[in-house]
Design a protein that fits this description.
Elements (H helix, E strand, L loop, with lengths): L6 E6 L7 H11 L3 E6 L9 H8 L3 E2 L12 H8 L2 E7 L1 H8 L6 H8 L4 E5 L3 H5 L1 H13 L2 E2 L3 E4 L5 E5 L3 H21 L2 E6 L4 E2 L5 E2 L6 H12 L3 E6 L11 E4 L3 H11 L4 E4 L6 E3 L19 E3 L3 H6 L8 E8 L3 H12 L3 E6 L11 E8 L4 E8 H23 L1
Parallel strand pairs: 1-2, 1-4, 2-3, 4-5, 5-6, 9-12, 9-14, 12-13, 14-17, 17-18
Antiparallel strand pairs: 7-8, 10-11, 15-16, 18-19, 19-20
Helix pairs in contact: 1-2, 1-8, 3-5, 4-7, 9-13
Length: about 400
């Protein structure tokens, strides 16, 4: 596994660790990667444009508009050119700028205009790193989709010891190798995924229906996360007011039966993530006209089971996806009930979430989940934005696909 022939845009920030950017450039160039750089005003206090240009064999950008290249707008052209953008070192001040969407210089403007992944490599005093304001910014940036590597524990330039030391150039190189290996795998294999999201509605008559509180937010975020990673994603959504990304093929449905039919039409795929809260039951009969309450008797509505979409996918001998991932919305015995469903439905992963909480779960931007694999191993993600949790789920799914592919080969 190696990284080669990639386009890396390196933004060099203002910190004593900025000198390590020169070592990273050397390592990247040795593997035939193209490196371009933006040197921030504060970064210039630690490394010189001449030393950077000597290593990259390309000019170092410093200003928003370069009078020597008036024909192009650098903040757009640079952001489109790169395969990934790295900020090294990422200071507490720089994270604050990004968290509020500032675009006051070339570095922040490029990042705000970019459609590529941004990898932040923090480096700062341990007290600065653990400060509540910094950690709040970290969570905000993770929610926006920024990638983080480090910081590490160790002795810092100030003489203190703790978490805040920047990851080494070789650690960064190893991270990039894994990152691009995953990206290249997805591109080469043309990975496809289907994601179900939202509630379903099972109508008693033209007015009344059985349903639940699902908003579809978690499923929509998972579809977006997979799509950002290069996966050809189809989103099958029950009734929802949410808008999906334009890169995602979306199929709108209302009932569980309609969702089941669209799932079957979307096969074969490598990944199936069932985040929808599908109604377990539907009325045996849907009345054409509104039911008169005076004519209804208690317990007079007869129900029948809907097809279990997850179980259909997990036990499908002909078109079973390589990975079947399901959600288990529970109000008690969270992990126990989830593991039982994982086994019964033959899933590869099950995401258990407690929907009894008022500050997360249904109709919330937040969630707290346990990700359980086929061996029963549990990874707990504490309360966080659904977008952050979606990114983690997507990373775990693709890492599993990659590991399985290696074992086969």
């Amino acid at each position: 596994m190696t990284i080669k022939n990639k386009k890396i845009l390196l933004i060099i920030g203002g910190g004593i660790a900025a000198y390590k950017s020169l070592d990273l450039i050397r390592l990247l160039k040795k593997k035939n990667n193209e490196v371009r750089t933006i040197l921030t005003k504060s970064g210039k206090e630690f490394v010189t444009p001449l030393s950077i240009t000597t290593l990259t064999n390309y000019k170092t950008f410093e200003d928003i508009f370069d009078k020597n290249s008036e024909a192009e707008i650098d903040h757009i052209s640079l952001s489109r050119w790169a395969d990934i953008i790295i900020v090294l070192p990422t200071t507490a001040n720089f994270m604050t700028k990004l968290s509020i969407g500032k675009a006051e210089d070339l570095a922040t403007t490029v990042i705000l205009a970019s459609n590529k992944d941004i990898l932040l490599i923090p480096a700062m005093n341990v007290r600065m790193w653990i400060h509540k304001a910094t950690q709040k910014n970290v969570k905000t940036l993770q929610d926006y989709g920024y990638l983080f590597l480090g910081p590490e524990k160790g002795e810092m330039a100030c003489g203190e010891y703790g978490e805040g030391k920047m990851s080494s150039p070789r650690q960064i190189l190893y991270y990039l190798e894994n990152y691009f290996n995953k990206k290249d795998f997805i591109k080469k294999k043309k990975i496809k995924a289907l994601v179900t999201a939202g509630p379903t509605r099972e109508y008693l008559d033209p007015v009344r229906y059985l349903s639940n509180e699902s908003s579809g937010k978690q499923g929509y975020e998972i579809a977006a996360a997979l799509s950002r990673m290069g996966v050809n994603t189809t989103l099958i959504s029950g009734p929802s007011n949410l808008i999906s990304k334009k890169e995602i093929k979306i199929k709108k449905v209302i009932t569980a039966s309609e969702m089941f039919e669209e799932v079957k039409k979307s096969l074969p795929v490598e990944i199936a993530v069932c985040a929808a809260a599908v109604s377990d039951f539907k009325p045996l009969k849907k009345n054409k006209n509104k039911l008169n309450k005076d004519s209804l008797k208690i317990n007079s509505i007869k129900l029948q089971k809907n097809t279990d979409i997850v179980e259909y996918l997990g036990k499908n001998n002909k078109y079973r996806p390589k990975l079947v991932v399901s959600f288990a919305a529970e109000t008690e015995n969270l992990n126990k009930n989830a593991i039982s469903k994982l086994i019964k439905k033959n899933c590869d992963f099950i995401i258990a979430n407690d929907v009894s909480k008022t500050d997360s779960g249904f109709n919330s931007d937040y969630n707290r989940v346990s990700i359980i694999d086929g061996s029963g191993k549990i990874k707990i993600i504490k309360k966080n934005k659904k977008s952050f949790i979606a990114n983690k789920i997507a990373e775990i799914i693709l890492e599993k696909l990659l590991v399985d592919e290696k074992s086969i080969n």
